[in-house]
Design brief:
The protein is α+β, with helices and mostly antiparallel strands and about 160 residues long. The chain contains four helices and seven strands; from the N terminus they run βααβββαβαββ.
């Protein structure tokens, strides 16, 4: 039987696992897009990791880190859902959906009123998760040179 754990990160080892998954995410997305995400301030994000986040979340299958995401403050009562990624070996267990639900619940408990995200139109599975959770398309909310999809959810 598969043992699944979704948790808010609170140990040095789990923070290191999330950092590793986020690094894999960056490589995956940059390879997929054929361009860097440096415009998002990734150098500072990883130099100060995890200080730019309010909360990090990790999914483990049978004790092995498989997926992660984070909640990052944006402005006022708005936060961002960032870096949702599931390793290939973890796919098919609904980890992305479960992580997003946990992140949304935590953001609500932290007092945020809205959560933003941006994604690529071609990442159809991620887009379907966000749509299922009630995210709706919005105007571009930050300076992003790509043709990204911008979404928001009222909490």
């Amino acid at each position: 039987m598969t043992r699944l754990e979704i948790k808010r990160v609170d140990t040095v080892d789990d923070i290191a696992a999330v950092r590793e998954i986020f690094t894999e995410y960056l490589r995956f997305v940059e390879d997929y897009l054929g361009q860097t995400l440096a415009f998002q301030g990734t150098d500072k994000e990883f130099a100060d990791f995890p200080q730019t986040y309010d909360a990090l979340f990790l999914a483990k299958l049978n004790g092995a880190p498989m997926a992660a995401c984070g909640v990052k403050p944006f402005k006022d009562e708005i936060c961002e859902l960032k870096r949702l990624y599931c390793r290939p070996d973890g796919r098919g267990h609904h980890l992305g959906l479960k992580l997003c639900k946990t992140a949304i619940k935590t953001a609500t408990e932290m007092g945020y009123k809205k959560i933003y995200l941006d994604t690529d139109h071609g990442l159809t599975h991620a887009n379907s998760i966000y749509e299922k959770l009630g995210f709706r398309d919005i105007e571009k909310y930050y300076d992003n040179p790509m043709e990204s999809r911008f979404m928001a959810l009222n909490l």
